[in-house]
Amino acid sequence: MSFLEKLKTKNTQFCVIGLGYVGLPLAVEVANVGINVTGVEIDTKKVNMVNNGENYIGDVKDEELKKAVEKGLITATSDFSVIKDMDVVSICVPTPLNKLKDPDMSFITSALDEIEKYLHKDLVIILESTTYPGTTREYMLPILEESGLECGKDFYLAFSPERVDPGNPVYLTKNTPKVLGGVTPACTEHSKAIYEQIFDEIVPVTSAEAAEMAKLLENTFRMINIGWVNELAIMCDRLGVDAWEVIDAAATKPFGFMKFYPGPGLGGHCIPIDPHYLSWKMKTLNYKTKFIDLAAEVNTSMPEYVVHTLMDGMNMHGKALNGSNIMVLGMAYKNDIDDLRESPAFDVYNLLEDRGATVCYHDPYCPSFKRNGGMVESVPLMAELLHSLDAVVITTAHKNIDYQFIVDNAKLVIDSRNATSGLKNTEGKVLRMGGGRKLED
Ligand SMILES: NC(=O)c1ccc[n+]([C@@H]2O[C@H](COP(=O)([O-])OP(=O)(O)OC[C@H]3O[C@@H](n4cnc5c(N)ncnc54)[C@H](O)[C@@H]3O)[C@@H](O)[C@H]2O)c1
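^ thats the input. predicted complex w/ nicotinamide-adenine-dinucleotide below
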């Protein structure tokens, strides 16, 4: 029975490689349409949790995962040999940068080496991990063709970028349109046939490269626009104008404008990293990207700018940063989630310690993190502690924090997220980054 015929029987065997922020929600969506999913994950702790129906990803509903596991629709393993019985493999492994900011393809390579061992006729392989244009055809295809099987005839290979926005209550894995491009037209047709059973809308494009580039366009668009509004905040501080007010005013234009807000820098596994995949690829073609490099320069300078804003605020209070006690409020890279990856709050934390401050942190989503071989724990938000500190630096504006309580009890608040806008009792103690460089009056 061919793959397309088997799809009609609903007896498809679906494999997700890598059960992280992308892979676990995908596995649950696949199970939700009644298709059997086997997750292959190298972290045995995650394997055990999934098999016990225990959820560890914020965007996955505990009950949905539990039910799917109880019904036998989702199982997890670290044994790649299950691939020999699979019809579809979606690869959701990390694609970080190495120390030189070049693509680290080691996770994709090790997943591919395993797939190649168990590659069989009619297998559909879809890469979800963000990567540089050309990865699917130039990098993955030669490894898979070592099996002697022919792509587009014996097996099918495509790229379909994951677009998950952690914490977004409206757009989740299922209802976010899915761009998809195969290495051959048959690859697109086969991948589309399975994905349209799972996702609400498939957007086929004519090649894997177009799909890879579409993902990089989306994320680079964000990165560059965030760079622009971060520079806007710096300019507005010099001009004595409130950048946040300016952005909201501009956003009343009903066409041709999209809102982005300044902050302490880029975070997460996507926006600070993905554009460098494109820069790297272009370098191999003797082309130096300009917008990406400039936005990266502005964005990576933002933690330093937050610390300078703090030093200005402390100066207004006649204090030095050296020897002071500072709280970093919010360690996750964005509000209302627990993801610490690439969070600029760590850069702020490190810069403060480097300048001789004693630093503590509070984050309701991140109770602790590893640092210098030990663990640092979130301190409780208590009035007494706030009174004893020289300043609080808001790095992530989690919605479940009472910012009025912070303003009422802290001596000085540096707000890099506009969390204190419109609050009372800010006079002489709140300095909002991008707010026009004045203690609120
Ligand atoms: N997190 C997001 O919001 C997001 C959004 C869009 C795209 N992406 C992209 O999706 C990809 C995955 O990101 P993520 O956030 O899910 O990462 P993650 O670190 O949360 O999950 C990846 C999982 O893969 C596992 N893994 C690593 N190597 C493996 C291997 N060889 N075999 C099996 N499992 C392996 C890891 O143990 C981990 O559990 C990345 O390329 C990322 O850029 C992420």
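The chain is about 40% helix and 15% strand.
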